[in-house]
Write a structure and sequence with these properties.
The protein has 21 helices and 2 strands. The protein is mostly helical. The protein has one domain: Amino acid/polyamine transporter I (Up-down Bundle), CATH 1.20.1740.
């Protein structure tokens, strides 16, 4: 599992050239913006459809499932500065072939970046009532945040901080106005609207809602740009996940407790918002809550999505020229543009993302489970750094944490995949196999010369 040290060819190529400018507050706003996205606006209603008023309990279970996977990342992120995020974890702790196989599946899983801009256009047109082509609105949204990120992560983080403050105010307003209108009878059990789908419905809601509570671990991809990653990143992952899960549980109690369950099941959170807010505040919630939830996630995603591929370019898995870093703004300009184009394709050609995301279901759970298992190799792969790490623990604890992380992914996979058709299973298995074939032949070609993309911090 040892990596080869090699000098990156070319100037301004690689994660080592990025500016280390992100402090704790910047990382926290990026994590919060990543977590609070389309999920809370759309998935609460789906959760209610599965389990009724116990959707608040489902959110807490979702938070536990999310933390089970987050804890291995806390140990790894608390030990190493990971310049290539998850790619570096696999390279350092699982081996070169694993890192190479991760690349094509990583690209596929991020095609859904377009959903944030597409959803934004829906809210924008609904609020303004303007007869504007939603494709145009989505394209402008995507382009705006692409341009913002061109000028460096520091400027994007500044805008993110401001948007997250407004977003937090909108969510607080929803809770403050909504709590006063909750029908508390049966809010925590004891009536027919509690756990309407039984245990299976509760677990299905919980697994579905992990898409709303998850996201904090993506800040591992900011490791190259963080001032103090091993101190800040683990704390941000835990605090942001728990805090937002608690907020979501309160919001879910409002969502399922103000109007009859039959009216809100499967519906957007905006239906409840319209019932609890007076004129003016409702519009603020749409802008500061729904629309900013989407744009903060889009902004954060454009900030971190290039980093694993940037390191992959430096290592030779992809053409090194793609990893060009702008000398002034320290932005991986070509890779950022590639992801911008990837995001624009579904927008311009009106491609449904539902099938694309389902195609990556097994693939994403498979590699995420491997990231959890990778933690057991810390003592062997980086013995000196691990022994001096503040998060140092016993080998037995590492195995337990790996079991929790991988087990949570297996549980979620079983629940989600139980209703998937056979072709989804077959296509996912084929994609996993092809990704390893790609990695094997690329490595054997001699083009891959992997540098060490981690360090103690």
């Amino acid at each position: 599992m040892d990596q080869e040290k090699t000098k990156t060819e070319g100037q301004n190529i690689g994660t080592a050239d990025l500016k280390r400018v992100l402090g704790f507050g910047d990382l926290m706003s990026m994590a919060c913006g990543q977590i609070i996205g389309a999920g809370i606006m759309a998935l609460v209603g789906i959760g209610i459809a599965y389990t009724g008023r116990s959707v608040n309990l489902a959110f807490m279970i979702a938070a536990v499932l999310t933390l089970c996977m987050a804890i291995p990342m806390v140990y790894i992120g608390g030990t190493l500065r990971l310049r290539g995020g998850n790619y570096t974890i696999l390279a350092a702790l699982m081996g070169k072939i694993w890192a190479g196989a991760y690349i094509p599946t990583y690209i596929l899983s991020n095609i859904s970046i377009a959903i944030y801009a597409i959803s934004f256009s829906t809210y924008f047109i609904g609020l303004t009532g303007l007869a504007i082509d939603p494709i145009l609105v989505a394209a402008v949204c995507m382009t705006t945040f692409y341009i913002l990120n061109i000028f460096g992560v520091q400027g994007a983080a500044f805008v993110q901080n401001a948007m997250v403050v407004i977003l937090a105010a909108a969510l607080i307003a929803f809770m403050a106005f909504g709590v006063a209108k909750i029908n508390w009878a049966g809010a925590f059990g004891g009536d027919a609207d509690w756990m309407t789908g039984g245990l299976n419905g509760l677990f299905m809601a919980s697994v579905t809602l992990t898409y709303a509570t998850g996201g904090a671990t993506v800040i591992l991809n900011f490791g190259a740009e963080a001032k103090n990653p091993t101190k800040d990143i683990p704390l941000v992952i835990i605090v942001s996940t728990l805090a937002i899960a608690a907020v979501y549980a309160v919001m879910a109690t409002v969502a399922a407790g103000v109007l009859p369950v039959s009216q809100v099941a499967g519906k957007s959170l905006l239906l409840v918002a319209k019932a609890i807010f007076p004129a003016g505040v409702y519009e603020f919630f749409i802008i500061g809550g729904a629309m900013f939830a989407l744009t903060t996630t889009l902004n954060a995603t454009l900030g971190w999505v290039t980093k694993p591929l940037l390191q992959a370019c430096a290592d030779g898995w992809l053409p090194k020229k793609l990893g060009y870093v702008h000398p002034k703004y320290k932005t991986p300009l070509i890779l950022l543009t590639i992801f911008y184009v990837i995001g624009m394709i579904p927008i311009l050609f009106n491609i449904s993302l539902s099938q694309v995301t389902s195609l990556a279901l097994i693939v994403s759970k498979f590699f995420t489970a491997m990231l959890a298992i990778a933690i057991v190799n810390l003592p062997k792969a980086v013995p000196e750094i691990w022994n001096n790490a503040k998060v140092h623990t016993s080998n037995g604890m590492l195995w337990f944490v790996a079991f929790l992380g991988a087990g949570s992914q297996l549980f979620q996979f079983i629940i989600l995949a139980s209703n998937q058709p056979t072709w989804i299973w077959v296509s996912n298995v084929i994609m996993i196999a092809l990704s390893f074939v790609y990695a094997y032949f690329m490595y054997k070609s001699g083009k891959v010369k992997m540098e060490v993309s981690y360090e103690a911090a």
